[in-house]
Known about the structure:
There is one protein chain. By secondary structure, the protein is of the alpha/beta class. It has 24 helices and 19 strands. The strands form three sheets. Strands 4-3-2-1-5-8-7-6 form an eight-stranded mixed beta sheet, sandwiched between helices.
Amino acid sequence: MNETVKQLLGRSNRLGADPANTNYAGGNTSAKGVGVDPVTGQDVGLMWVKGSGGDLGTLTETGLAVLRLDRVRALVDVYPGVDREDEMVAAFDHCLHGRGGAAPSIDTAMHALVDAAHVDHLHPDSGIAIATAADGEELTEEIFGERVVWVPWRRPGFQLGLDIAAIKAANPQAVGTILGGHGITAWGDTSDEAEANSRWIITTAQSYLDTHGKSKPFGEAVAGFDALPPTQRRAKAAALAPHLRAIASHDKPVVGHFTDSEMVLDFLASEKLGPLAQLGTSCPDHFLRTKVKPLVLDLPASASVEDCLTRLRELHQAYREDYRAYYERHATPDSPPMRGADPAIVLVPGVGMFSYGKDKQTARVAGEFYVNAINVMRGAESVSRYSPISEAEKFRIEYWALEEAKLQRMPKPRSHAGRIALVTGAASGIGKAIATRLAAEGACVVIADLDADKAQATAAELGSTDVAVGVRADVTDAEQVRAAVDATVLAFGGLDLVVNNAGLSISKPLLETTEADWDLQHDVMARGSFLVSQAAARAMIAQGLGGDIVYISSKNSVFAGPNNIAYSAAKADQAHQVRLLAAELGEHGIRVNGVNPDGVVRGSGIFAGGWGAKRAAVYGVPEEELGAFYAQRTLLKREVLPEHVANAVTALTSDEFSHTTGLHVPVDAGVSAAFLR
């Protein structure tokens, strides 16, 4: 790897790893050096810069755009002016070196035109606090003297690059700038020097805020708006979450994230909550993620859930009208269509913050950005008055043609993207295969299992907590089932898809089957499925987004085989629950379907737990040959694996089966005695 690139990546990762320096995917870094022209073999001056959409903390070489420095700087001679500067982004494509790497971002000019070998552009909370203070220019001079220069707000682009380059040339003593309403830029002759200058600006700003800031920048706490006790707070959050997701998903379904950090709760209890929230965020990265402003519930923490919901519906309607008016005030004939009028951030005093996005990561990051915004507002209010960029400028960023183009380049979402699934008995066997497949198709998945450690381990195999979480749940216990559903809506904002997979099997003839055997089978599968479906349906109905409930029943629900009366009767109970719930929940758009597997031996927790040995004994075959035995008795002569059941569940819960409910799909390779009639 080129040494210049190696230094750039090291600096970027160090800076990006600390949220005090910049937010997720915020800011960019660059380095200028020498590379080899692949055509001539001659040395050529290059610039490596973080590409569009990348994250500094995790940046790798593939995330860098690589450009010919002479060609980028030559664009100055053809720059058509501010009114047409968006055209310059396309011009960067003609400056790429070799294959060019990642797509160049709008900030490329800032890095190329500044006469320094290494440049950092960051969004630290302390720097943005100064950048958004009403007297930010005066504060910049007071805090930094001549070493940092104030740059009035200008939308990111080629002209901003020219402005900063001119400031650098006119102020040789300066190590960086404060960009009004936006962030900071720093530079250096070496990578270490640029990093040191960036850190010095950030820490110097923070030190000033700590030393000179007021102790109560958000004013006094408002009586009745302080945080509820943790248990009560999270219970109220879980009760509100499905309804709030309905609000945030009015135009398009979204996934949610819940934050109840002390920092958020303090802001929600402050007297300045209302007016500061109305001002919205300032840094472009912030409001592109959080929307112009949040929806704020204006009721005390003691308000009942019912009162909160009534008021939230009123506030949502007002929010939508206000957002439409905002769009209409600033839209031009060339503006993209309005993308949706629902809030991305909902603030509930005493409870916390709910943030929303197309997937869990986007929702979580939106919440992190609003926490950044709270920090910025606190800093600005502590030494001055928070004064973000104007509404008109926010609109120009939010509905920027370049942002629209970026959205259009996004890949087509996977079949279950944005859906939230709860799978019971999912730490092994069929349940694990289902959870794995749903996650692969873009769903957020909660792994519920009697063994908490195994549930969490399975979730970790599927990815980060943005993809899956594991919870303990005994499906025979109504309280634990409700807790699992609450954990789901708190983790991901709601619930769209439930798979009743938890089960066990006891293989005994009638005369040897005890009452305890019968009760255990029915408690886990019949009662357990009922409890899970009931709790899940309550959340789904509150959301108003429809949903899916799938029962993993069995061919034994219709096939009369020997020596398993308790198991087969419980499976028949599950099969009829499918029909009953399909009839009842259809008016809510909730589909209820079943899958009837047979002979899933490999990977099955039930078969490994003794059922396999008993069934093998019944049929007079060695246990290790049971799967092959089952296959030979089928019409297709194929063994059924957990992945085949997962395929059926995925298909049934996709849009391809949007008009199907009350169906049982056999996944048994063809057992004619189990044909549905």
